[in-house]
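User: Please fill in residues for this 297-position structure.
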């Protein structure tokens, strides 16, 4: 299933399920409330099987699938990106990176959906993107065994971890995380795709679950990045198991993968494209999910 949070022309917000080019409204204000209901996913499947006609997708405005998620963790799970970004700074790989799938907590108040304009961060001159895939937690759990962790995934969406690199460099000198270099914007969308929808792309199972899904980024229609989800070093089950150690995960929690190899200017260099500017439109596309589009304003 493809699940959305959307707004009608009458300015009413609903969760919905997509069937072809139409969206069928569900009796929840957003997908977060649907996921918090133990019967929510089954109700969505029943709606998908119904004779309801719904609304044309072109007549509604898609919002971020999970507005105001309870938490947003962003991991650092693609080895190629980590190695290349560190090489740009003249340093090698940290051995400890191979011991745990590390993450930082980001800001849940500045989440943008498909088609929403993203404000340029005040005080920065080096705006970058990060091409990521994210999973959304579907049920509560704590100390989740890695062998069971895939069962906690409600679905996948595209994530753009917008980054102000000049602010981030200052943040990181203080050894306490990205801070203001990251908290001004995260884009998620266009919808949440359930794992069963992606079953033919799955290349592993259990703790090794991965998917063969091309990931690419475009600016004003020009491709600047291409990678694949199956290149990830740490799987989402491994990330979930680590995130849930001594901590409760809840429905709607978002876990970002970190940047796929070549998925940002920091890695590929501003020779490929200068730091992003207001007026430019960024498209992130992942096979099996769709396209997440935002214009910088």
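Assistant: Residues filled in for all 297 positions:
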């Amino acid at each position: 299933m493809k699940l959305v949070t959307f707004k009608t022309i009458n300015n009413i917000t609903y969760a919905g399920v997509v069937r072809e080019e139409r969206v069928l409204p569900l009796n929840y204000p957003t997908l977060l409330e649907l996921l918090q209901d133990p019967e929510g996913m089954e109700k969505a499947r029943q709606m998908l099987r119904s004779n309801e006609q719904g609304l044309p997708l072109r007549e509604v405005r898609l919002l971020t699938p999970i507005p105001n998620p309870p938490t947003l963790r962003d991991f650092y799970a693609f080895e190629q990106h980590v190695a290349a970004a560190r090489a740009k700074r003249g340093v090698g790989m940290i051995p400890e990176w191979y011991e745990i799938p590390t993450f930082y907590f980001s800001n849940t108040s500045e989440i943008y959906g498909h088609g929403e304009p993203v404000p340029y961060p005040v005080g920065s001159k080096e705006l970058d993107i990060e091409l990521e895939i994210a999973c959304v937690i579907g049920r509560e759990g704590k100390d989740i065994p890695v062998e069971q962790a895939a069962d906690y995934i409600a679905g996948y969406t595209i994530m753009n971890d917008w980054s102000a690199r000049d602010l981030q460099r200052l943040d990181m000198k203080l050894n306490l995380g990205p801070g203001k270099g990251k908290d001004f914007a995260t884009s998620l969308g266009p919808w949440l795709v359930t794992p069963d929808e992606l079953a033919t792309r799955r290349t592993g199972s259990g703790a090794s679950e991965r998917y063969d899904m091309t990931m690419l980024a475009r600016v004003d229609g020009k491709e600047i990045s291409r990678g694949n989800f199956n290149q990830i070093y740490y799987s989402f089950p491994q990330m979930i198991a680590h995130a849930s150690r001594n901590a409760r995960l809840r429905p709607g929690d978002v876990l970002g993968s970190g940047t796929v190899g070549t998925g940002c200017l920091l890695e590929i260099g501003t020779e490929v494209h200068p730091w992003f500017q207001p007026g430019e439109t960024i498209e992130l596309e992942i096979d099996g999910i769709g396209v997440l589009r935002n214009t910088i304003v």
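For context: The two ends are 32 Å apart (CA to CA).
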